[in-house]
Design a protein that fits this description.
The chain has two helices and no strands. With about 70 residues, the chain is an all-alpha fold. The protein has one domain. Helix 1 runs antiparallel to helix 2. The protein is elongated, with a radius of gyration of 16 Å.
């Protein structure tokens, strides 16, 4: 697995987990100790931002000059 692929996978996982945590923190997803806790909504938002940053960082692969 290349570094770019790993960064994309980690970024996507952070976005998905963050979205679930936001939903639980806001009470949109029931059935967890996180339901209705604003702390988890904030943590989820931070995870989403970190995931988007990981997905949006341009690759720094070196190119060989011909």
């Amino acid at each position: 697995m290349t570094a770019i692929t790993a960064r994309r996978v980690v970024g996507a996982v952070l976005v998905l987990i963050g979205a679930v945590w936001i939903g639980q923190g806001l009470g949109l997803i029931k059935g967890s100790f996180m339901t209705g806790s604003n702390v988890w909504a904030v943590i989820g938002a931070l995870c989403v931002l970190a995931g988007l940053a990981a997905l949006g960082v341009p690759s720094r692969e070196t190119r060989e000059e011909p």
